[in-house]
Amino acid sequence: MPDMVTLTIDGQTVSVPKGTLVVEAARQVENLIPVFCYHPKMAPVGMCRMCVVKVGTPKMDPATRQPVVDADGKSVIAMMPRLQTACTTPVSEGMVVVTQDSEVEHAQRGVLEALLTSHPLDCPVCDKGGECPLQNLTMGWGPGKTRFDYNDKVHFEKPVPLGDLIYLDRERCILCARCVRFQDEIAGDPVLGFYNRGRAWHIISQSDPEFDSKFSGNTTDICPVGALTSADFRFKARVWELQPIPTVCNHCSVGCNMTFDTRSNDIKRVMPRENDAVNEIWLCDRGRFGHHFNTSKQRLTTPLVRKAGKLQEATWEEALSIVAQQLDGIRSTTGGKAIGGLAGTSLANEDLYAFQRFFRETLGSANIDHRSGSALDLPLDDAGAQYGIRSGTDLSTLGKGTVVLVFGADPEEEAPVHLLRIRGINTRGGSVITLNGRPTKLDSIAKHALRYKYGSESAILAALLKPLLDSTPADGKRATLRGFNDLVAALKGFNLDEQASGISADKLNTVAELINSAENLVIFYGRDALTAGASVPAGLANLLVMTRKAGATNSGLISLLKGANARGALDLGVRPDRGPNYAALSNAGLDAKQMLSAAREGKLKALYVAGVDPVGDNPAAAESLKKLGLLVVQELFLTETAKLADVVLPVLSVAEREGTYTNAERRVQRFRQAIRPTINARPDWQILQALANQLVSEAVLSAAGGDKSRKQTRREEDKARVRSEWTYASPAEILMDIQANVAGYKGVSYASLQGPTGQWGRQANENYYFDGTSYQNTGGLGVQLPAAVETSSIQTLQPFSVSTPASVADRPWTLVGATFLYDDGALLTDTDLLNNRKAKAVVALNPVDADKLGVKNGERVTVSSGRGSLSLPVHRTKLAPEGVVVVPVGVNNVGLVSVVEGGATPVAIRREA
Amino acid sequence: MLKGTMAYFKGLKTTAKYLFKKPVTVEYPEVKRPVRERFRGRHELKRFANGLERCIGCSLCAAACPADAIYVVPGQNDPAKPRSAGERHAAVYEINMLRCIFCGYCEDACPTNAIVLEHQYELAFYDRRASIYTQDMLLVPVDKGHGEVPPVLQQTGKQLNPPAQIDL
């Protein structure tokens, strides 16, 4: 290859790509060069001087510009007069590197001796002890004795908290700036900095609140000493005592690979597992610190059955037979249509598949959904699977030639690790375009940061599609695009109203051109886009098709849905209108909203709720649920819905069981049992299996009454319907069933999920100097499912139309419900460390607007729409654009659900006296 | 015949010789034989002279233990009422005496000389549970401490430089 460079390292010849640093090249010949400040994920700085090596280059004759050749015909090597830092020196042709000789060793010993002059050597009480690069390198390269006076060490107050999550021990710090660089380069929150100089030189936080970053926990991983330690793991255990169990984060749709580090049947900490295709080696703070719900004392510990108006403890046999008998009764009198089921997006694929099978086969009901039936539900998103990012895409390798379009999404709040990956693409030379209704953190790095006015989303997309449509040649290419003429018709006579949309047509033409000329196109869309109408995901899919990127390598949509397994729920048909693998159904059932209204009207007799909290999401739903004949709730906690239930069935949490999740990029990943359950709970799929089998058993039939021959026929009917009894022994068997019956999941099994484990070109013994800064993935990288469009030759344009929101004269403001990372969700139960960072129940209002209304910070306003009103204190912030009020979703005591009408809602605001 | 009688007296001579010597046996348990200075008996957890526990909960004893007899759960000291010197203490410290082989590796591993194998050797139990010695049983009384706290454990709350004042 032309861009390869050949050099000699310790006598071994090695060829590496041009631009490779000497320290990386040395890894290829398995010659370890010790490092502290260098990290493969960040730009080198050469601060610690630990990686010094001897470097020589071929001597050039200044007159002829030719290498000087000695008598043997070999080129003469001119060694550099001083040792060079291997982490900042790029390789060059013919270079000679010496990593091991007495001069290098002398220098490295000197560096370590100097570093240790100010290090307190309190390893026995340090949480990093045991996985500390400073310990390791001192053992390997350090001097046996120091010439410095032990009592002359510099001392600082210890420890100082940097915010609630991180402790800083300045004595231990070796000033490598890994944390500072991580915050600047990777997280994009430049909140850490250096202060003072000389021996008083130390790290400080420059933000208020301190260390204000959603990725602060990662600095404790990459810190090569114990200077930054997490408050969550402070003095919890020694690292060598921990047993890391591979798992998958269940807080959002990124599906970060991580481990539960356990000891004595308790989760002591959460650590990332490196998976370049998902989370590289990073985690957000919610994922890292939000594991306490697994071991919460508030968990349901035993089945509860309502007796004499009160929920009372019961045995599993009793609770299950009550549910089975009642469901059987309703099924035999009114049929399956009077039974509804809600299964949440934090359930595993196996549970969701069992759930829809239980409803469609055993109960004969099509009324299933994965949403809660509140006004804040997201619409069903199919585009994310049909036009999803092509399987095999690794965002961590994309750079030059890649355009990332972020439409109506705030990755920082909705899926934080995606923010790091988008920033990474930008750093490697890709372009980021943000098209949002309100400012987000990505705007600062975006090539085009465009702000549309809420309601004009489809018009913006039309303006992007139009130039692409016009430039598509009229020849045969159009024929391969199904729906081309419909799209032409939809955009006929369209002209962008720049006033109403807030963006000029010229700007959008530039963006369209950039998208069209891109090599790879990745489109992220989130809550704002999903709630803006069906035309928005359709329009984004059309953008892909029109730019010939649909199903193309490294291109596609990534839909930031709410919940860890929202994509799995959609894939496996936990929805009323489609079966597993998006198979069309002849008669659709009721969705969550319709179920609640049917319950209110008395048409729905029973509701089975697993991992959803309709009443918590919308208190008005209690009215409907009280009218039900039977409400069964399968939950971790006694939620508001569970309090109304007739039977409550406790389930095991993600740490106590096995299963798989499908993430936003449609990667199926496996989590494992980390701790032994100490409560009388069962995994969701087992409960459903027990019920399904009980529903066809003789006991239930005799309890249902009727003469013997009728019983016999019913039993035959039931048998025919359920085909056979469920005999799943483990989730692995359900996944085998899914693999056999759901086309999209072909080839997904626990064996294939175990998958390849090698990453990062890791070599034996490399932990020696990256110890504690990265965690090898031994649990498998998962399997990415192909998008539907990859396998079809004809590409379909989605039906698209431009809608213009009717403005309401007396409601001039726009209310937007925004997702925040730290909300009041049940998964943050007992994670008290994050309490101070949780989104506040406030109305975010632009200062200009606030002045117009004459409200100060903290004064209450009433926000009213056509449906209802809410009353909250005002928070003046530029994060809300003029004319827009932002209210958090998923935060207690907000009342947003009774005001919002789908997406952006026109509202009136009144200052309260 | 005579030879046999002589042998009888020969044996009695030995008996008679020891009849007037001080006996080697002691009346255990009333009388206890003193042990050697370096005898390795039951562990004790020592204290500093100021009464603070020497143990800092570092688990190095547990790591060194070849029999996996030691279980330590560390905890964070309350600065107002510290249990040990420094930031960290042992919240739980248990030794399973049935597992312990009295090798003394824990003593060697201990950075603060907190754990010492002392001279108590009477370790018998009626049930297995009783063989687990807890921290309360192992700790010496508060007034039986010795030695000063080393400087490395005295840095909590210490301020050499004024804290950074940054005007943001």
Summarize the structure.
The complex is a heterodimer of chains A (913) and B (168). By secondary structure, chain A is an alpha/beta fold.
How would you characterize this protein structure?
The complex is a heterodimer of chains A (913) and B (168). Chain A is an alpha/beta fold. Chain A folds into 5 domains: 4-114, Roll (Ubiquitin-like (UB roll)), CATH 3.10.20.740; 122-134 and 147-295, Alpha-Beta Plaits (2-Layer Sandwich); 304-378 and 565-728, Rossmann fold, CATH 3.40.50.740; 383-559, Dimethylsulfoxide Reductase, domain 2, CATH 3.40.228; 813-911, Beta Barrel (Barwin-like endoglucanases). Chain A is built from 30 helices and 37 strands. Chain A has a 7-stranded mixed sheet, sandwiched between helices. Chain A is globular and about 100 Å long. The mean pLDDT of chain A is 90. Chain B is of the alpha+beta class and 168 residues long. Chain B has a domain at 31-147: 2-Layer Sandwich (Alpha-Beta Plaits), CATH 3.30.70. Chain B is 19% helix and 14% strand. Chain B contains 4 helices and 5 strands; from the N terminus they run αβαββαββα. Chain B has helices at residues 2-19, 60-64, 105-109, 135-138; strands at 43-45, 70-76, 88-96, 115-117, 132-133. In chain B, strands 2-3-5 form a 3-stranded antiparallel sheet. Chain B has a two-stranded antiparallel ribbon with strand order 1-4. The longest helix of chain B has 18 residues, at 2-19. The N and C termini of chain B lie far apart (114 Å). Chains A and B meet through loops of A and helix 2 and strand 2 of B.
List keywords for this structure.
heterodimer; A: about 900 residues; alpha/beta; Ubiquitin-like (UB roll); Alpha-Beta Plaits; Rossmann fold; 5 domains; 7-stranded mixed beta sheet; 6-stranded mixed beta sheet; 30 helices; 37 strands; B: about 170 residues; alpha+beta; 3-stranded antiparallel beta sheet; two-stranded antiparallel ribbon; 5 strands
